[in-house]
Amino acid sequence: MRQFISLLFIAAALSGVSGVSSVMATASDGIASSSAGPAMPVTVPDTMAERVKPCTVCHGQADRVGRDAYYPRIAGKPEGYLFNQLRDFRDGRRYYRPMTLLLANVSDEYLREMAAYFSALRQPYPPPEQVISSPTEIRQAQKLIQQGDATRDIPACIECHGKQLMGTAPFIPGLLGLPRIYIAAQFGAWKNGGVMRGQESNCMSDIARQLTIKETNAVAAWLAAQPVPENAEPADVLSPEMVQRCGSIVQRSADR
Amino acid sequence: MKIAVVATAVAVLAGIGLSPEIAGATSPKKQAKVERNATPLSSVLLQQRQARGAYLARAGNCIGCHTAQGGRAYAGGRKLSTPFGTFVTSNITPDKATGIGDWNEDDFWKALHEGKSRDGRLLYPAFPYTEYTKITREDSDAIFAHLRALEPVVQQNPPSQVASRYDFQPLLTLWRAAYFKPGVYQADPTKSTEWNRGAYLVQGLGHCSACHAERNPLGGMIGRKGDDKLGGGQIMGSNWYAPSLTSSLEASTAGWPVEEIVQLLTTGISPRATTSGPMAEVVSQSLQHLTKEDARAVAIYLKSLPETQSHQQVNPPAQAEQLQAWLRYGARIYKEHCQDCHGDSGQGAPGIYPPLAGNRSVTLTPPTNVIRSVLNGGYPPSTSGNPRPYGMPPFAQVLRDGEVALVLSYIRNAWGNRASLVTTAQVDKSREGITER
């Protein structure tokens, strides 16, 4: 009975919501009544650039710090990778609420088109960051990147991200031209039980979880300090062993 | 109640079917059904029935509620939050342990028609059986045939978070006595077949009133006129207002050409209106799949609905000096952030960027939806009729609450629009709501 009454109570309180009362008394006359004749419809270019305007308010020419988050650049990243991220945001597997809401009713086909558009977009990379790292940190970073750590079953970053670290088409993104804080934040997201970047574990989150904070900071700093090579392109073949490791990412995309 | 549940459990354990007395099901066709079940349908007939069922399930948007975000289709687990608690949808794939693999046509009919689970438990009306009760037995059987043909998914969903079942069941009994009348749709012989088909889809399978009804404190719908419970209301537990489909100040389509109504429902966009939020989902998951004939029938029915007074009052602001200054500031924000798409006089690009002048969604008395539009932006749904829609950027990260209030107050009172001002507090409240779907 108690619950019954409290239910009624809650419900009654809620029903007050729809009867929004207005602050203002009734008006006498209009404020900006249209005077001119009917206006011509806005002309809208039939292009992808126009269709992705909602994206470019955040993802501009360069990475930048927004009011609520860090907005990474997306231009030039591998198409399959971008598509996977977009689908993950839409379906709640990668967490950033504004993008989830924005993409709620967008079909897979259209997401693919958006991914292709941004992937083909060529924008200049930012200059390397000025970061101060100790020689030990540099050595640690270079070792992980070039050789990995067999004792912990961590392959070298270049095995997947390409010799030039510009990624491997179509699913693995490049690691150069990314700001240090973005890289560090991604590692943080993978390590924190994948709340931000997917609950399911995959080849990348498995590695991230093994690295210490010191190591990820060293790697992020080293990567951000490298210039992006001229005419850099992603590698195009992933070794069968790495394909195997990254099955969930490579396969999931092939399903559709 | 407990006795019935115990009895059911005993019956199930003993491997005997439920007797109609215990279950309270007294379908006169019961006997015939049993016989029909006994003779298997020819495979062609069965396939036809499954295909019909698949279509009807689309029209009822079963998949929308019974699929979790990014989850397996029909395996349930989607959470619906309401003031009564968080309801979790059931797995309705034919898995025996976690789905409805053990159900027969009669069990299924009882769920849709009477809102009772196989074990006799009264189902929560978050499952819109108050509308589905209008579905015919034939259509129910077809939907069941479709669900039976799905691949079983083993998925145990968490229970709904509500007052414990035994406390809630008596409340449901009361609620049902007051607000639920089981009964298949009865055709109105004075109306055309097409109109009746539309009424059947809107009142029954389409369950439009699940969102578009005005609700009283108990979650019961208030029908103003007969069965047309479409007077508009705040969707329970969400920050969306589903406008009245019977008021010309809100979303009545009485004055529209039928083609435009069809266009809105099946493509998500039309020269005068654009769907967003929950309505965009209904369009993309359900309405876009309607046949031309059914979409037209729905449109004819909607167009015929008699005008009812909007229960929302229109209280346009008075013309004080201070107010003029505010609105000028709103106009500046508009010019900087909105005009490129929506035009210098709110004319937009119909079918692409919605006009804001004369747009009833903009002037709806509760500003809930427009606040959401501006804070979150969004794309109208991708549909086969409009596969690559243009979108609206989110402004939550760009404009402050006060600026959103100003620009909205402006567009609600410019170009001949007339509506109440939007306050900073209202915008702030909506920001909280963004954490929900």
From TrEMBL, chain A:
Presence of keyword ATP-binding: no
Origin: domain of life: Bacteria
GO MF annotations in UniProt: electron transfer activity; heme binding; iron ion binding
Start and end residues of each Cytochrome c domain: 143-227
Annotated Gene3D superfamilies: Cytochrome c-like domain
Residue numbers binding heme c 1: 55, 58-59, 99
Modification after translation, per record: Binds 2 heme c groups covalently per subunit.
PROSITE patterns named in the record: CYTC (PS51007)
Residues that coordinate or bind heme c 2: 157, 160-161, 204
GO cellular component annotations of the record: periplasmic space
Protein keywords: Heme, Iron, Metal-binding, Signal
InterPro entries: Cyt_c-like_dom, Cyt_c-like_dom_sf, Cytochrome_c4-like, Cytochrome_c_Oxidase_Subunit
SUPFAM superfamilies: Cytochrome c
Signal sequence extent: 1-27
Designated name of the protein: Cytochrome c553
Originating organism: Nitrosospira multiformis
UniProtKB/TrEMBL annotation, chain B:
Cellular component annotations (GO), alphabetically ordered: membrane
Cofactor binding note of this UniProt entry: Binds 3 heme c groups covalently per subunit.
SUPFAM superfamilies from the UniProt entry: Cytochrome c
Record bears the keyword Secreted: no
Superkingdom as given in the UniProt entry: Bacteria
Residues holding heme c 3: 338, 341-342
Any one GO MF annotation of this record: heme binding
Cofactor field: heme c
Residue span, Cytochrome c domain: 48-151, 193-306, 325-415
Keywords in alphabetical order: Heme, Iron, Metal-binding, Signal
PANTHER family: BLL4482 PROTEIN, BLL4482 PROTEIN-RELATED
Name of this chain's protein: Cytochrome c, mono-and diheme variants
Protein source organism: Nitrosospira multiformis
